[in-house]
Amino acid sequence: EICEAIPEFYELDQQIAHNSIQKGKALLMGSSPAILEELKRSNMELSMRKIELLVEYGYPKDYLEPIYECPSCKDTGYIGQEKCHCLKKEIIKLLYSQSGITKQLEEENFSTFRYDYYSSNLIGDKPLSPRENISSIIELCKNFIDHFPEKHDNFLLQGNAGVGKTFLSNCIAKAILDKQCSVIYLTSFQLFDILEKHRFQKKYEEDNASPNIEFHYLFECDLLIIDDLGTEMNNSFVSSQLFLCINERLLKKKSTIISTNLSLAQLKEAYTERVVSRFIEHYHICNIYGEDIRLLKAFRN
What we know:
Elements: H1 2-5, H2 7-29, H3 33-56, E1 78-79, E2 82-83, H4 85-98, H5 102-107, H6 130-146, E3 155-158, H7 165-178, E4 183-187, H8 188-199, H9 211-220, E5 223-229, H10 236-251, E6 255-260, H11 264-271, H12 273-282, E7 284-287, H13 293-300
Helix pairs in contact: 2-3, 6-7, 8-9, 10-12, 11-12
């Protein structure tokens, strides 16, 4: 197209190709640096002339430049020796799809969130009704989402079974994914399984991803969601690895959301005081209360 519209363009391409061949021959023959430099200078001038011709004929000067989906790495996946953010994102998307949560997000997101499952009546000595309380928590979560990833807050979602902790986690996950950021969702069992396999160098079955990859992205993903903390088999290894995970992500300024049925006192007993101190100092502690939504749904259906 360009060569037809700009006849001189073809001649310039041919001259550049000829100079490149001459440069190759000069290198093989051990010619003087002056000859090599002259060929290089000539090709630069020819390339500049091509750009001038594009502009003269009404084309953008970068018309012939390739269009990359990721300008940072030019679609190679790497910047130098480091993985580009686009490759990291694709790897995390793969890990995320393997978790089986992707389809669930189509049903559990802010557009499907139901406030009517939360009573507007006060409960016991609570200062807010369940509906007022969840509304306040969601407002906090949406503020976090609006400023993500510049704002790297963390959330500890507490409450009895069935009050919507996992649903809210999925709402946040969907919103963060929609911002083209990386999210990994794991149950507490899955989290500690990855940590254990990394620690003791156990191998996955052939149909699973490398534990080293999953371990690495526990600390690199923009948002890590740990669901149902406290349902795993607890021991000193679990406690130490939980501290490692949350502390490392705090140091890297990466956001984490943890849901649990346990109170702070129970978390302290299960995972030691230093873990709970991180929660108190660095996490929004959100206590969700109300009726068991699973039972409400069953009765309404």
